[in-house]
Design a protein that fits this description.
Length: about 140
């Protein structure tokens, strides 16, 4: 199957999701416009990251079990599962960013032809030939 050349929506990284739900005004005008325009996807990888940080006590999202369906609903998003080609895509990424969750999100955005909505200053260092980004 040939991948479409036009991006098919926005993948919100974990930080963007958290900020959009709590303090959307701190996000750039471009990210807020992207979220409003959609279509939006939230990766199960972000849910995994939120769960782990909640378990460690480094992130408070209230009940992390209800956080995921609430985030999907509030951001009018659909979930994106993690597939083997997403994991394999991490291998081809330049060694710019060390966070494994973010690297998988980058690979997912590339594989699914989604624009990654991020405020992460490390992610925006990836050359555009690798990734479509709105920051």
């Amino acid at each position: 199957m040939k991948r479409p050349s036009v991006p098919q929506g926005f993948l919100l990284d974990t930080c963007t999701i958290l900020l959009a739900l709590s303090t959307p005004e701190v996000l750039s005008k471009e990210i807020r416009r992207a979220i409003f325009t959609g279509p939006n996807r939230l990766s199960v990888v972000s849910y995994w990251e939120v769960m782990l940080k909640s378990m460690k006590g480094t992130l408070d999202v209230g009940d992390p079990h209800s956080w995921w369906p609430d985030a999907l609903e509030q951001l009018a998003a659909t979930p994106l599962a993690l597939y083997p080609e997403h994991v394999a895509g991490v291998y081809t990424l330049p060694p710019i960013h060390k966070d494994p969750f973010d690297r998988v999100l980058i690979a997912q955005a590339m594989a699914e032809n989604l624009v990654l909505a991020t405020a992460d200053s490390e992610i925006v260092k990836y050359p555009s030939k690798y990734l479509n980004i709105v920051s």
